[in-house]
Specification:
single chain, about 325 residues, alpha+beta, Ribosomal Protein S5, domain 2, Alpha-Beta Plaits, 4-stranded antiparallel sheet, globular, binds (3R)-3-hydroxy-3-methyl-5-(phosphonooxy)pentanoic acid
Length: about 325
Amino acid sequence: MKATAIAPSNIAFIKYWGKTDEALRLPANGSISMNLSELQTTTTVKFNKDLDEDTVFIDGQKTEGLKKNRVTQHLDRIRKMAKINLGAKIVSKNNFPMGGGLSSSASAFAALTLAGATAAGLDLTEKELSILARQASGSACRSVPDGFVEWLGGKTNEDSYAVSLYLPDYWEICDVVVIVNTSEKSVTTTEAQKSALSSPFFRERLGKINDKISLLKKYLGEKDFPKFGELVETEALEMHAIIMTSKPSYLYWLPETLRLMILTRQWRKDGLAVYFTLNTGHDLHLLCLQKEVEKVVRLLKATGEVKNVIINRPSVGVRLVEGHLL
Ligand code: PMV
């Protein structure tokens, strides 16, 4: 009863921000993302009749407290579906830093879902895996299908899941992840999302979000990179406007984050098609076409603001692998 899965993180072009059901993690709106080739979590789950409790190791450290509880709660969902009552050993490793806004929860819970379900003897469809992953971390449902992905918002547990819009080789977009600081963010996404509805701008956003989703899909369909990039950039700022104006209010940016946003716009004025987006955190994602990526990285490194860059291409979604971690 052992299985290992590898899952990509993803970057949202249209953001998921705010829920209609906290326990089921049903989103206030649909969202669109791309899976990332170089930000991955690998997870092995082994159920064992001699264990009456789960043990969790993340990046070589035994994990307790809230992080462990979230893993155990998710395995409880799987145990219930599989009608088993066994403890598990879970070993997970990320190839990137957790907690700086690179969506480690998306890759972590997508990998845990597939590894856990398979180890428990379940054979789930992509849709069922996406529904299950969503309950652990909303964005994780988008790391299940391949490539460019839409999470169909949905109103119930059964109709809230993600589907692939295009396979990874559809468009040569790069997402250059720019790590400006390796510290963990002070407020988790789950916590900050709870106050989304208190922002005076939240209703305004929801009123227009379906038109925005249609527009993004149009630009994606036409491969119109400048229009696509403009929309993605303002969407990230809209999410942060809500984060900053909700009660309580949160500020995720560091001075480096803002300096790089301003520089990105300057590079654009100088003729380079590059756009920023970001999640809840201080690290930025710069989007450009493959042919411009070397120039973008060169410019970034010359700023002196950057700790590390990770160049991502569109990726397949979660899959099983043979290389077990235990
Ligand atoms: O899945 P969560 O609860 O980590 O939420 C992710 C939310 C954002 O990353 C900020 C936006 C998104 O759509 O990925």
